[in-house]
Amino acid sequence: MSEQRRGDGGHRGQGGQGGHRGPRQRSRTAPSARARRADVPRSTAHQVLRAVSQDGAYANLELPRALRRARLSGRDAAFATELTYGTLRMQGLYDAIIAEAAQRPVGRLDGGVLDVLRMGAHQVLGMRVPEHAAADQSVALARFAAGQGAAGLVNAVMRRIGERSRDEWLDLVIPGEPVVERLAVSRSHPVWVVKALRQALLGHGAATKDDVDTVLEQLLEAHNVPAEVPLVARPGLAEVDELLEAGAQPGRWSPFAAELAGGDPGSIDAVRDGRAAVQDEGSQLLALALAAVPVDGRADGAPERWLDLCAGPGGKAGLLAALALRQGADLVANEVSEHRTELVRQSLRAASEAAGAAGREIVVRQGDGREVGDEEPATYDRVLVDAPCTGLGALRRRPEARWRRQPGDLVGLGPLQRDLLASGIDATRPGGVIAYATCSPHLSETTFVVRDVLKKREDVEVLDARELLAGSATATLDGLGDGPHAQLWPHLHGTDGMFLALLRKKD
Predict the structure, then answer these.
(1) pLDDT of residue 176
(2) How many CB atoms lie within 10 A of CB 84?
């Protein structure tokens, strides 16, 4: 990316994570003589990072609101976006560097000051911002966030960070062995996540013992590359050409996909109207595969009935609703959370209106998915169980998730995932199909769940999800694993790490 020099805060090229930066420009200005306030893009990024750290906010939801409040657009919005997401992604590496530069554990630093230092480190080591500009603006942010004493600390730490290149810092803070610990620091992931992903690559057949560490590094690196905004034109409601005319590019796998390289997807009429939406291509393929599985005809000749058991926030449900209308089926979108139920209702509004005009039915309701199997046994022809999970397959889009999730989360999620899958099977009529999906490749959330549930049942057969997933794609889709389940990967397919198991209820 070409370099930019600006007078308002020293923004400079927003990409890249290494290489020669040219002559170093250290800040010679005393903290008391510097700008009293940081510029708006940096202040906005810091506000988002504090919301993520303090309040548990999600950056992908908080940042657009912050950009609108600050009225940022163009290069300023792009700078704030890269500063926010890049800082979150590389937080683990920057914490190791900050601890060395500050000569104290990062846990002893004020949270607001630590976020300032992480941002400063990313500007110098990841964005090619001149060192003097990054230091001056970091000091101004620290003064505003925590006072003059914090400003002096930030000034000292930023000067120490600027004394070494990125490669020199990597040599200093990254351990030589073992491989997992080395990759955890260099590719900025918690050690437990790196270990889980290594096991997942082996367990799903995406790597062998001989090449797993090389493949693991590719996967971790893919998590640190910003993803384009994936769009879906919901069939019957919008056409892909409408998205292309709005500036998007064709998708890679889904016949209904497009990618937006920049800009606000909410500015596109079809997205704003709910006829199109932001949805990962892997997620699209899962819905398409479920809709494509042959099912036995209903004995009464009635239209098929489909169920999305865990529909919030409504991405897959929106595509399923459009596909159901196209195939003359009805859909029930069930969600346990009141807030997420409202999000599903909003997502399906356009499809619901079209269904009413076509004499079909799309129902959005609030309810516990674990109870549906008992309340509506053998009712549905197609059931999607998109189970709550750790989200380790979506770390490109949700960088804070890698730091927020803990191994203990699996303790609560595992029983829930098993109960939901069992309920989904019970709710499926004989001859119908069930899709179990997660946005995580973790073995404890994928193959182990399916295995444990099917141990207790003799009324289910396993289908080859790879064949049906690949058959829904517009290009040759390889690398889905050893089967019969299918696993998508960011480093192979450019999608989120979606898992799919397809099951048929026996007659």
Answers:
(1) 82
(2) 28
Nearest to 12 by CA among 61, 114, 73, 82: 82
pLDDT over 90 for what percent of the chain? Answer: 86
Considering only CA atoms, which of 230, 390, 379, 241 is closest in space to residue 315?
230
Torsion angle defined by CA atoms of residues 419, 56, 341 and 407, in that order, rounded to the nearest 10 degrees: -10
State which amino acid sits at residue 330: D
Amino acid at 436: Y
- State pTM to two decimals: 0.90
List the end-to-end C-alpha distance of the chain, in Å, as a whole number. Answer: 59
Cα 141 to Cα 101: distance, rounded to the nearest angstrom: 19
Question: Active site residue: 427, 439, 465, 468, which one?
Answer: 439
Provide the token pair at 155.
């000034």
Q: What digits encode the pLDDT tens for the residues 400-445?
A: 999 999 999 999 999 999 999 999 999 999 999 999 999 999 999 9
Of 242, 238, 259, nearest to 250 (Cα)?
Answer: 259
CA distance 258 to 252: 8
Continuous H helices in 249-314: 269-272, 281-292
In this prediction, residue 298 has a pLDDT band, given cuts at 50, 70 and 90, of low
To the query of whether residue 439 is one of the catalytic residues in this protein, the response is: yes
Looking at the chain, the number of H-run helices and the number of E-run strands are 23, 12
Do the beta carbons of residue 436 and residue 424 sit within 8 Å?
yes
* CB contact at 8 A, 43 and 66: no
**pLDDT tens track for 33-67:** 445 678 999 999 999 999 999 999 999 889 999 99
294 prior amide bond cis, ω within 30: no
Query: Cα–Cα distance between 200 and 202 in angstroms, integer?
Result: 5
Report angle CA 303, 307, 313 to the nearest 5 degrees.
135
Token pair 């008391």 in the structure block, residue: 32
Name the one residue in this structure whose structure tokens are 């976020």: 115
Rounded Cα distance between 411 and 425, Å, is 22
HSE, side-chain direction, 13 A CA sphere, residue 200: 29
Contacts of 130 (CB under 8 A, 6+ apart): 10, 12, 25
